[in-house]
Write a structure and sequence with these properties.
- The chain is an alpha+beta fold and 466 residues long.
- The protein is built from nine helices and 15 strands.
- The protein has helices at residues 2-25, 46-68, 79-115, 140-160, 171-199, 210-247, 252-286, 332-360, 453-465, and strands at 32-33, 36-37, 301-302, 306-307, 316-318, 325-327, 364-368, 371-376, 378-384, 389-394, 400-407, 412-418, 424-429, 436-441, 444-448.
- The strands form five sheets. Strands 10-14-15-13-12-11 form a six-stranded mixed beta sheet.
- Strand 14 and strand 15 form a beta hairpin.
- Helix 1 (2-25) runs parallel beside helix 7 and helix 4 runs antiparallel to helix 5 (171-199).
- It is elongated, with a radius of gyration of 29 Å.
- The protein starts with a helix and ends with a helix.
- The relative contact order is 0.09.
Length: 466
């Protein structure tokens, strides 16, 4: 239930915003209809308007379907199935939102061929040469400030994690979760890279007048530069909040849960003005457009979404639909990127299947001669009974945080840390049981149980009688 609530709070609003952005950005405008170039005169064609109407109906229907799908996870008691539902939901969302667009793209291409709207068999390609490469709005120094500030939070956490004092009483706890602060801080480096990457894209040609093209590029690049810089500062604030919460460990879980929600909403909130400002720029420069055909032919756009042009040496190009850039699959980098993406997508069913198999495979605790065997999928622990000390039968485990391992409703195994004391322990148990074994081996604390209380009691009695 906690997983479902976290996913619903963190992912659901973001995905619904994505639905809204895709619905609004995919509508025909600025000489583009579903990934195909269409002149202003042909935009008024009734057949094209009917294609848009059918697309709109399908999009609205699919958005409703995707909005309801995640709630099925609340009726499933198994964590692995819940994770599978949420993962499948993301892919279903993408497919259901893209499929109406892909069909509309095919219809528009057929319409253009049937009506003879293609002016040239080999359309001209326009490239802006004036001040080539000089339209740069990102200053590295302004981005390095939040990078350094967030890095100082990481340095503070890692520095204090090795000091035993009153401020950091549970140094082990801080060491275990300092990696989260490091990963958050690394986002600022990523933002800097993306900002520079977008800033270096070629100038889009919308007019035969170079000044118009350059001013158009400056306006759009300024908007994106401001967005990435603002996102970087928001991330820096979040990094410091998490760092302080981790040092005062009692507040860390709450900071991550609530902070992630607030952080997601703030960053998505920063994206809303970007959409509005980009639209204003497009509207302002619409009257300046005097090139009938865009520099990239429809033939190079698969489904109007994927760009494949062996003649174009640029790795990144502006998207035909929506905002930002997309990758040229025909380039070496584009092929590598797509290869990695395909491998990741194919590995997901395997990983989800393994997760389900792990949760539905029962654990086993038994005595084999003079050893305690803990098995799950394989033999996990093999402990000599003579080395077991301070054996207790407890009815409740302390509140813990997972360091490495699995933490599910019916399975908890791996390395965990007790929140109250900061002590690290090894778990191998079914959390739904009411009886657990607590003991020590070589000063390492273990909490174990069998698949049920009966199996746990049997092992407990056998150990005592050895």
């Amino acid at each position: 239930m906690i997983l479902n609530i976290m996913m619903l709070v963190m992912m659901y609003p973001m995905m619904m915003i994505v639905c809204f952005v895709m619905y609004t950005s995919m509508k025909p405008k600025n000489g583009m209809a579903f990934g195909c170039t269409v002149s202003a005169v042909h935009m008024k064609d009734e057949t094209l308007k009917e294609i848009e109407r059918q697309w709109s109906v399908e999009m609205k229907r699919n958005i409703v379907i995707t909005a309801l799908l995640p709630f099925t996870a609340f009726f499933v008691p198994y964590v692995s199935i819940q994770i599978t539902i949420w993962t499948v939901w993301v892919f279903v969302l993408i497919v259901l939102l893209e499929w109406p667009f892909i069909k509309a793209n095919a219809k528009v291409k057929d319409l253009k061929h049937g009506m003879g709207w293609y002016d040239k068999e080999n359309p001209e390609e326009f490239i802006e040469l004036k001040a080539a490469g000089e339209v740069r709005r990102v200053k590295v120094g302004t981005f390095l400030i939040p990078v350094v500030v967030s890095a100082s939070a990481v340095a503070l956490v890692y520095g204090l994690s090795f000091v035993e004092n009153d401020l950091v009483k549970k140094t082990g706890y801080v060491q275990d979760f300092a990696i989260i602060i490091l990963m958050l801080a690394f986002l600022n480096v990523l933002f800097l890279w993306v900002a520079q990457w977008m800033d270096r894209q070629r100038t889009e040609v919308i007019s035969t007048q170079s000044d118009v093209n350059l001013n158009y590029a400056r306006a759009k690049k300024n908007i994106w530069k401001d967005f990435w810089l603002q996102s970087s500062w928001v991330t820096t604030v979040y990094v410091w909040i998490c760092a302080v919460a981790l040092i005062f460990y009692d507040w860390f879980d709450l900071a991550i849960l609530v902070g992630s929600l607030v952080y997601t909403f703030v960053v998505m909130g920063l994206a809303v003005p970007v959409i509005r400002k980009i639209k204003e720029v497009e509207t302002h420069y619409e009257k300046e457009r005097d090139i009938a055909v865009d520099s990239d032919d429809d033939r190079y756009w698969i489904w109007g979404l994927l760009y494949y042009n062996p003649k174009d040496k640029h790795t990144m190009v502006s998207q035909r639909v929506g905002m930002g850039t997309t990758i040229n699959i025909a380039t070496k980098a584009g092929k590598i990127w797509w290869g990695v993406s395909i491998i990741v997508m194919l590995s997901l069913p395997v990983l989800l299947g393994w997760l389900i198999f792990e949760e539905f495979t029962p654990i086993s605790l038994s005595i084999n001669e003079d050893e305690v065997h803990a098995s799950h999928l394989k033999l996990e622990h093999e402990l000599l009974i003579t080395e077991i000390e301070n054996l207790e039968l407890v009815t409740e485990c302390p509140s813990m945080t997972k360091v490495v391992g699995s933490a599910m409703d019916t399975l908890a195994k791996g390395s965990f840390r007790i929140k109250e004391t900061g002590e690290k322990c090894i778990l191998f148990l079914n959390p739904q049981n009411e009886k657990f074994l607590k003991f020590e081996v070589d000063n390492q604390v273990y909490y174990m149980s069998g698949i049920d209380d009966e199996e746990t009691m049997t092992v407990y009695e056998e150990i005592k009688n050895k």
